[in-house]
Write a structure and sequence with these properties.
The protein is globular and about 70 Å long. The protein is mainly alpha-helical. 77% of the residues lie in helices and 0% in strands. The chain is built from 12 helices and no strands. α6 packs antiparallel against α7, α6 crosses α9 and α11 packs antiparallel against α12. It starts with a helix and ends with a helix. The mean pLDDT is 85. The protein has one domain.
Length: 237
């Protein structure tokens, strides 16, 4: 099935499930936006007052001095907030998957990631590390690696008994020869993302949030869910 056909199906589901799906989308965006805001609002992770005092005195702080001025509590809180993102992402993925399969959906689906937090965080850390290592070679190998593991969360959703490494391995197998297809689908949403960014710049966030963002999230989420379903069906055949 072509990417355009998958997107048509996603739009059909959105209209059939409006306005409830927009409420879920707004909640998801509000929570992830709040996490990002909290991360950027944390006190500086480095004690810059001491560093600046040394600089003002004509002293160039060594790496040892810089590291001793780390505010470990700030680093810990930032890391904790960062790790909450994939849990919410999995929750929204769960919601989209259930809707694409015509199953009953609930608001609490958004928090399904907290049930499998160990496996989700393992997938997140392992795939991020693998993508980073491939990215050290060149940008393109890093992008390829990122798409290689993109279906790991979907596989976990289908069978929560599977371990993180198994989900990653199966994603790699399914995405063999199909990475460009998903990349093409993602690129087709660039216009929407650009419009969303423009609206957010021109209009204050509380007003801009419902305008474009709550449409993009389910549109992309349902399209990717349909992509996964299509790949699984092709393998079954």
């Amino acid at each position: 099935m072509s990417g355009s056909a998958l997107k048509v199906g996603a739009r059909k589901l959105i209209f059939e499930n409006a306005p409830r799906i927009f409420y879920i989308s707004m909640l998801y965006i509000a929570l992830t936006t709040l996490l990002s805001w909290l991360m950027f609002s944390l006190p500086g992770n480095i004690n810059m007052q001491d560093i600046n005092s040394r600089l003002a005195a004509g002293e160039v702080p060594s790496l040892a001095i810089i590291f001793t001025n780390f505010r470990l509590i700030g680093v810990f809180l930032a890391l904790l907030l960062l790790l909450l993102h994939p849990l919410l992402d999995f929750g929204f993925l769960s919601y989209c998957m259930k809707m694409s399969r015509s199953r009953e959906t609930e608001y609490k689906d958004l928090f399904n990631g907290f049930i499998f937090f160990t496996k989700i965080l393992s997938i997140f850390v392992i795939t991020a590390l693998l993508t980073f290592l491939w990215g050290l070679l060149l940008i393109i190998p890093g992008i390829v690696a990122g798409y290689r593991y993109r279906l790991a969360y979907y596989i976990l959703f289908d069978d929560p008994k599977k371990g993180a490494l198994q989900c990653i391995a199966e994603s790699k197998a399914i995405m063999h020869g199909r990475k460009l297809d998903l990349l093409t689908i993602d690129l087709s949403f660039l216009g929407w993302y650009a419009l969303d960014f423009l609206v957010a710049v021109l209009i204050p966030l509380p007003v801009a949030l419902p305008l474009i963002s709550i449409w993009i999230s389910p549109y992309v989420g349902l399209t990717r869910a349909a992509f996964y379903e299509n790949q699984v069906e092709n393998i079954a055949v």
